[in-house]
């Protein structure tokens, strides 16, 4: 049984060009996530995809039943890979994610996806709080510009701030190339 799992969070069509909530750097993040998927599949690691649907009637994105809520073609699940449907920011809240991981004896998580400042942040913190060893692949995640009062915060700064905070106490931060080189060596 695999003891390591790759979790790919919310890489869905609405985050890509033409979607309802486009992220900065999403194409590069998804390309790196696709490389991680290929490596995890080759290594026999458990792969779990998380897909978000927003049930609010006025949801700006991830509306159930729309193409925007579908997993992006670059990271589609293959037969036998779990897909966890969530309605909250935290991938563990009101889902069977932890049960899936526990059933497979997973103790180490590798996380990639979107958005850095929301679902990636929540899942990474929850994973650490639940006792998993967490590796966060920082260049396989994406964010967007935010505003706070009169301050516009560029996506690169949002991403850097959240990665910095998560790397301080919740996860080991690694670039895709470094992670893949490290896993090939083991």
Automatic annotation (TrEMBL):
It comes from the Bacteria. Residues 5-148 form the Isochorismatase-like domain. One of its GO terms (molecular function) is hydrolase activity. SUPFAM superfamilies: Isochorismatase-like hydrolases (SSF52499). Keywords: Hydrolase. This is Cysteine hydrolase family protein. It comes from Nannocystis bainbridge.
């Amino acid at each position: 049984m695999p003891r390591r799992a790759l979790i790919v969070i919310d890489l869905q069509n609405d985050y890509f060009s033409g979607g309802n909530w486009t992220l900065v750097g999403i194409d590069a993040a998804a390309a790196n996530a696709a490389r991680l998927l290929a490596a995890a599949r080759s290594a026999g690691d458990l792969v779990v995809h998380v897909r978000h649907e927003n049930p609010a009637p006025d949801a700006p994105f991830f509306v159930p039943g729309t193409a925007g809520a579908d997993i992006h073609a670059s990271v589609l699940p293959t037969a036998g890979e779990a897909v966890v449907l969530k309605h909250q920011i935290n991938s563990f809240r009101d889902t069977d994610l932890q049960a899936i991981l526990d059933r497979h004896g997973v103790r180490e998580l590798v996380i990639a996806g979107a958005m850095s400042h929301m679902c990636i942040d929540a899942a990474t913190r929850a994973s650490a709080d639940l006792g998993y060893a967490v590796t966060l692949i920082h260049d396989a995640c994406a964010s967007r510009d935010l505003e706070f009062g009169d301050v516009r915060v560029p996506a690169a700064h949002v991403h850097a701030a959240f990665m910095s905070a998560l790397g301080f106490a919740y996860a080991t931060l690694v670039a895709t190339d470094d992670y893949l080189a490290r896993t090939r060596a083991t």
